[in-house]
Structure formats: structure tokens, C-alpha cells
Design brief:
With about 80 residues, the chain is α+β, with helices and mostly antiparallel strands. The protein is about 20% helix and about 45% strand. The protein has a four-stranded antiparallel beta sheet with strand order 1-2-3-4, with helices on one face. Strand 3 and strand 4 form a beta hairpin. About 20% of the residues are buried.
Amino acid sequence: MSQMVSFTTRIARPFGDVPIVATVRVWADDSASLRWEADLLGVSASRAAGTGTRSEGESLHAAGVRLLQEWVESLA
């Protein structure tokens, strides 16, 4: 069974004062694997996407925030 969540969040930048606002969508199947994409405001890239995994017990929302934060930190 596939699951999906969609939410808007603010992510702190590794540099600068203005946070990134993102509308995030996260999809997962029955395994720990998931994929995510985000529409971004406040950065030169207007969209980000990736794949990842979630820990046992980690919600799709929490995993999406974590993966987006990791992506933002990789910009530094």
C-alpha cells in the first residue's frame, strides 16, 4: 500500500537569515524507501527532488523534513 503526505514547512539555511519555504510531497511504499519532491521559495532552484529511506517508526512528514534539510545543507 502506497502512502503520500504533502505539507508546507520552513527550513533554516546553512547561511543567511531568510528561511526557505517549501511545499513538500513525500511518497512511500510498504518498505522503508521513499521519494520526495519540493517546490521551493527563496533559493535559485525552484524545485528539489530525491529519494531516501526512513527509520522504523519515523513518519513520512518527519522523513520529508529531514531529507529536505539534508538537501539544503548540501548547498553550503
